[in-house]
Write a structure and sequence with these properties.
The protein is of the alpha+beta class and about 140 residues long. The chain is built from 3 helices and 5 strands, in the order βαααββββ.
């Protein structure tokens, strides 16, 4: 269980390597009722000017959220209370993705930590960046 007293500026999350297949991407999109070709079909995505299928934004958000929640643990000592993301470059399936994060700020009065998070491709290009806020019980 993570405790606020144990958190330091610069603490890292990850790196965590992920591989999201095209089938994973299609299943996620369809489960969410998203039938846009950019998320389910390479040719359809290319017709929209994309290099091929891309992950839905909320799938990238989910990957980053999981990075944070895995870091804080499941014991109930902390919770993710806010997450924001910026989508800089389309995230393509069938590529190795690496998720990173680090603690940038803490507020003792509120027992919160701010965390910068991001997804990189194989070329260390930041595809999605974001900020998470975690609140600790103790």
């Amino acid at each position: 269980m993570k405790r606020f007293a144990d958190i330091n500026i610069g603490d890292t999350l990850g790196p965590s390597e992920q591989f999201v297949s095209k089938d994973n991407c299609r299943a996620f999109a369809r489960a969410g009722g998203i039938e846009a070709p950019r998320f389910t079909d390479d040719e359809g995505a290319r017709k929209e000017g994309l290099p091929g299928m891309i992950l839905p934004g909320n799938m990238s958000l989910g990957l980053l959220s999981k990075l944070v929640t895995d870091w804080i643990g499941a014991e109930g000592g902390a919770r993710l209370i806010r997450m924001s993301t910026t989508y800089r470059v389309p995230v393509q399936p069938d590529h190795k993705l690496t998720l990173h994060g680090f603690v940038t700020h803490s507020t003792p009065a509120e027992r919160t930590a701010e965390i910068d998070v991001w997804i990189e491709n194989e070329d260390a290009e930041r595809l999605v960046t974001g900020t998470a806020t975690v609140q600790f019980d103790s």
